[in-house]
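Homework help board

Subject: predicted structure for assignment chain

Our instructor gave us this sequence and asked us to write out the predicted structure in token form, then describe one feature. I got the tokens but I'm not sure how to describe them. Can anyone check?
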Amino acid sequence: MSEDRSWEGNWKARLYARVRERGYDSLTAFAEARPTASLVELADELGPDDIAGVQVLSGLLAEAEQRKQVTRFVRDVLVRMLSQSLPDGWPTVLDDANRFKVAKAIGRWFAYTPETHKERADRAGDALLATPPPPGWLPRGPDDELLLTLLPDEEA
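My token output:
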């Protein structure tokens, strides 16, 4: 593994140049073509030695704010966290191991949620735990029917 150079130079220009090199006009379009890829996987695809997952997250949020689609961004990040922690979908039984996986996904998602949407995300996370989705449920994108019910497109 080489030294991380993610923060050297103009990382935003580098990030968007890599997105354009791959034929996309926005980071959002690039990410939407990979709806279940983690932020780190997206970063690695753009530049394993000089793009970081947090930079991808920052860029996606900035684009969402410009487009007034922050709620969609929040759902998108949840999809990515669930895909990482629960690759086989929502567990049939919430034993200790599965409860940890669910908590990890929801906790990381909440940490990445902008302050403007924390309260809504908290309610959505509580709703998922209080009334779990069917076993095997795993959203494949931010427009999943259940996610739209939990976090409808209302901007703060």
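Reply (TA_rk): Your tokens look well-formed. For the description, you could write something like this. The CA atoms of residues 92 and 135 lie 5 Å apart. That's the kind of observation they're looking for.
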